[in-house]
């Protein structure tokens, strides 16, 4: 029957009882399936993990600079790994590293949420911060698109009528 219409007999669900078969053009079916897979692959978003390294004795300006970098990464939709690096005797003061990480988590709470609590990995204490599902920056941009900007009202300007020159010309004097 399939040969008569130049199609293929394809087993669709072999584990079903009885097995399900279909008469179709198998080459066309495979092409459509590859096309769907390709489209799905294009739509798939690669999430990049950015890393920011700090020290337990970080200065205020350095801290602010790194927090701004974390915020921009989160606004771009990237996950951020925040690491505090301990050297030598600093390993005795792990609480200072936890304080720095909790301070960072509080500073970027508007832009992202903490995925993993602070944990030690060798001489690093790390947390992962993921961007919020709804980004405040993207929300503002969408609001601007929805609400058209109010056009300023231009006052109507009418040309003034030309007044007669009241002063005499130079050749008339």
UniProtKB/TrEMBL annotation:
InterPro entries: T_IF-3_C_sf, T_IF-3_N_sf, Translation_initiation_fac3_CS, Translation_initiation_fac_3, Translation_initiation_fac_3_C, Translation_initiation_fac_3_N
Domain Translation initiation factor 3 C-terminal span(s) in chain numbering: 48-132
Example GO molecular function: ribosome binding
The family this protein is said to belong to: Belongs to the IF-3 family.
UniProt organism field: Synergistes jonesii
GO terms under cellular component: cytosol; membrane
Coiled-coil parts of chain: none
Residues covered by region (Disordered): 132-173
Name by which UniProt lists this protein: Translation initiation factor IF-3
Pfam families tied to this protein: IF3_C, IF3_N
Subunit annotation: Monomer.
Function: IF-3 binds to the 30S ribosomal subunit and shifts the equilibrium between 70S ribosomes and their 50S and 30S subunits in favor of the free subunits, thus enhancing the availability of 30S subunits on which protein synthesis initiation begins.
GO biological process: ribosome disassembly
Broad class of where this protein is predominantly found: cytoplasm
């Amino acid at each position: 029957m399939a040969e008569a219409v130049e199609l293929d007999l394809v087993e669709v669900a072999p584990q079903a009882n009885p097995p399900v078969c279909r008469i179709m053009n198998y080459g066309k079916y495979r092409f459509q399936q590859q096309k769907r897979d390709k489209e799905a692959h294009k739509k798939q978003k690669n999430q990049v993990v950015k890393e920011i390294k700090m020290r337990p004795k970080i200065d205020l300006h350095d801290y602010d600079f790194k927090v701004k970098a974390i915020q921009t990464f989160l606004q771009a939709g990237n996950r951020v790994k925040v690491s505090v690096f301990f050297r030598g005797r600093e390993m005795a003061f792990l609480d200072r590293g936890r304080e720095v990480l909790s301070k960072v988590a509080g500073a970027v709470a508007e832009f992202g949420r903490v995925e993993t609590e602070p944990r030690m990995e060798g001489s690093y204490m790390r947390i992962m911060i993921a961007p919020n599902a709804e980004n405040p920056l993207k929300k503002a941009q969408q609001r601007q698109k929805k609400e058209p900007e109010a056009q300023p009202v231009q006052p109507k300007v009418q040309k003034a009528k030309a007044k007669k020159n009241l002063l005499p010309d130079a050749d008339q004097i």
